Amino acid sequence: MQIASLMEILPQNFSVVDREMVMRAYNFADEMHAGQKRVSGEPYVSHCVAVAGILAEMQVTPTIVIAALLHDTVEDTRATPADIQKAFGDEVAKLVEGVTKLTNLPRVSRGDQHNGSAASADDPPEELPPMAAKMKRRDLANETLRKVFLAMGDDIRVVLIKLADRLHNMRTLGYMSEAKRQRIAQETMDIFAPLANRLGIWQIKWELEDLAFRYLNPEKYREIAENLAERRQDREGMIQKIIDNLQAVLARNEIKAEISGRPKHIYSIYKKMVEKGKPFEMVRDLRAFRCIVNDIPACYAALGVIHTTWRPIPQEFDDYIAAPKDNFYQSLHTAVIYDDGKPLEVQIRTVEMHQNAEFGIAAHWRYKERGHRDELYEQRINWFRRIMEWRQEIEDAQEFVDSMKSDVFQDRVYVFTPRGDIIDMPAGSTPIDFAYHVHTEIGNRCRGAKVNGKLVTLDYELKTGDQVEILAAKQGGPSRDWLNPSLGLVKTQRARSKIRAWFKRQDRDLNLVQGKAMLEKELRRLGMNDFAVETLAKDFEFRSLDDLYVAIGTGDVGLGRIVNRLIEDAAPKDLALFPLTPREAKPGDGGVTVLGLKGLLTTMARCCNPAPGDPIVGYITRGRGATIHRQDCPNILRMKDRERMIKVTWGEAHQVYPVSVAIKAYDRAGLMNDISLIIGNENVNLIDIDIKVAQNLASILMVLEVSDISQLSRVLSRIENLPNVMEAHRQHPG
After folding, report:
1. Could you report the per-residue pLDDT of 549-582, keeping only the tens digit for each?
2. Do 641 and 660 share a domain, yes or no?
3. Using CA atoms, how far apart are residues 108 and 23, in angstroms rounded to an integer?
4. Could you tell me if 308 and 670 are in contact, meaning their C-beta atoms sit under 8 angstroms apart?
5. Residues 679/686, Cβ–Cβ less than 8 Å
6. Which of 3, 325, 516, 632 has the fewest CB atoms within 10 Å, i.e. the most exposed one?
């Protein structure tokens, strides 16, 4: 973008003085960045102008646009914060300094596309071994992301500039190397798109998702884009007819409305394909429209007219006006069967709701008069400060970023306390997570839970509408088992952090003894008693083995991390305990892979009975996913509906190792059924079993085919957690 284009798109309410300040900021940035180039070969200042342009289109204040033009000057040029302050004032200097603090560590998070820039997090020192270099890059990236999130509580405008910066870098990501494209795109999908969503900035959110998806799954992106392009002309004519019809129906009922076709974005189409297990051809009929009216009563009036004109689809109505989403989004959503017998999605909202939906927290700065109090903005800021409150104490950057991913960016469930208060929790949360959300002490003393008046296990996943009552002891503390990820007892980082904090307050000697016992038990269970644990202390950069034991006892180093390190250090032969050779699983073991689409149900056609290795093709059957046929199957050759055929391949072959497992338990009804369920859920093959029961004690010896130590550890942990099971461990041969 050129400066002339930026000046043209500046909001109309910018005064002459504001425009002069924007031009001054451009001249300053142009002088400071003189001679610097992007990877594309363009002058570096073009990036600064583009970032300012993205924000100007959102119609933010002059201060934000000026700070966007200057956002890289302190970081990449000889300019100092004092220079910015002298030339543009305290507020601009504060914003530029805020963005600089966010970006002065790794360029992996910036994706800044400097050409010939100094060594950065993308390029760790040559002398570091590959694993250390990878961890160094990850730590630097996480530290920067931690600063991004913490900055939200201080000044949200800093994060707006950061999001615009990321959006322009994603638009020009094609000039980067393949490895950097993948890394930056994945980070965008994991962190920045959900961040834009949490801020309610739909415009930036959908574009970041589409751009990241383009690099993460280029084949599927291209396929959907080409399908959309082929049908664009027909679709545009159809959409205009529906808009005219909706307009006429509402006008007859004296409802003034502005109606537009709501664009379906490529990543949202892909997600719908995955959720519904259907190819593009079977989701293309989803038409979406937006109806903008004057006030809230008109929203419900329009809804009534639409529902009386066309038949509503059950379970497809959502009232986000009465019950807004947790990012303060408001709208009425419904879906009806249109005249042509196909579904039609409609969103109904007011002009203010539309601005808040499109621009989120940035809508606060659109056309706002000085001194005007914006209650919605204050609610958003207070909400952000609440979610950041306990995270201020987390010093480990990886833990911090994990907590944001698990606790803030995930989908939400809404549950009730016994008194009827609504608690907003991440999807997948358990009663222990709920207990710690209510109060730390209740979490520490949690011993059981009732959901909707019935006792449930502590690994129960809470659902929207559940009423949760925690059964707590009068005194006591959490169990170390709660930190074992294989058991699924705790899902949120908030609860994990509080559990670890409780153990850290315990006596060092107690943590040392407990940590040593936990590590020895895990190694014994995995049949690795002779493993040199001293090497683990060095791997995790502890001065002594005792320090490692203490870290395990407090939960700072989880057994999951230990197992992952064992996988790196252990040779595959460590798994093959039997005189059997590791076998390569048949391709069919992993099912059939539908190209570009995961999670689609597949069944084998009985007419031709395809076997692994045969050339195959998929045929979409309504309600039954894809049926897999041989390519030379007579039934397939006779099919006329070619659009329902999809490309499929046999799943990738993988190596598995036979491992002997011994289980000791008090016999009870259903014991083997529970063990079989765990083995089946982990997709582990059981190839041999021997059961002996004497005096109510069951000794079970089984041979499982596992892919690695991590999978074995997970299976053993879950089996050992079953009622009546005393121990489950790997059996040494002989």
Report:
1. 888 888 778 777 777 776 665 544 444 443 344 4
2. no
3. 31
4. no
5. yes
6. 632
pLDDT higher than 90, residue 170: yes
Ranking 256-260, 337-341, 351-355, 605-609 by mean pLDDT, the lowest is 605-609
Which neighbouring-strand residues pair with 617?
629
Q: Report if residue 578 sits inside a domain.
A: no
DSSP character for 649? E
Q: Which two tokens stand for residue 516?
A: 């040593």
Give the three-state DSSP class for 465.
coil
Q: CATH code at 248?
A: 3.30.460.10
Q: What percent of the chain has pLDDT over 70?
A: 76
Angle, in degrees to the nearest 10, between helices 62-69 and 16-32: 10
Work out the angle at residue 211's Cα, subtended by the Cα atoms of residues 210 and 213, and round it to the nearest 5 degrees: 65
615 — phi, psi (to 5°)? -65, 130
CA atoms within 13 A on the CB side of 44: 22
In a domain, 396, yes or no: no
**DSSP designation for 253:** T
Is residue 678 within 8 Å of residue 661, measured between CB atoms? no
Q: What is the band of 470 on the pLDDT scale with cuts at 50, 70, 90?
A: very high
Take residue 586 and report the two structure tokens written for it. 């048949």
* pLDDT tens string 128-152: 445 455 555 555 566 656 665 665 5
Catalytic residue among 76, 165, 187, 209: 76
- Which of 607, 618, 702, 612 shows the shortest CA–CA distance to 658? 702
The answer as to whether 257 is a domain residue is yes
Low-confidence winner among 16-30, 331-345, 383-397, 635-649 (lowest mean pLDDT): 383-397
DSSP secondary structure letters along 131-200: HHHHHHHHHHHHHHHHHHHHHHHH-HHHHHHHHHHHHHHHHTGGGS-HHHHHHHHHHIIIIIHHHHHHTT
User: Is 76 annotated in the active site?
Assistant: yes
Is residue 575 in some structural domain? no
Contact yes or no for 691/672 (Cβ under 8 A) = yes
| Interaxial angle between packed helices 202-216 and 178-187, expressed in degrees from 0 to 180 and rounded to the nearest 10 | 140
Residues 496, 512: one domain?
A: no
Q: List phi, psi (to 5°) of 620.
A: -70, 125
CATH of the domain at 447: 3.10.20.30
Residue 101 has pLDDT above 80, yes or no: no
Are 246 and 297 in the same domain? yes
pTM of structure: 0.59
Residues 193, 163: Cα–Cα separation, whole Å? 9
> What does residue 563 show for φ and ψ, rounded to 5 degrees?
-60, -40
The Cα 374–Cα 359 span in angstroms is 15
The label of the residue with tokens 């490692």 reads: 548
Domain that holds residue 242: 224-361
Q: Is 451 helix (H, G, I), strand (E, B) or coil?
A: strand
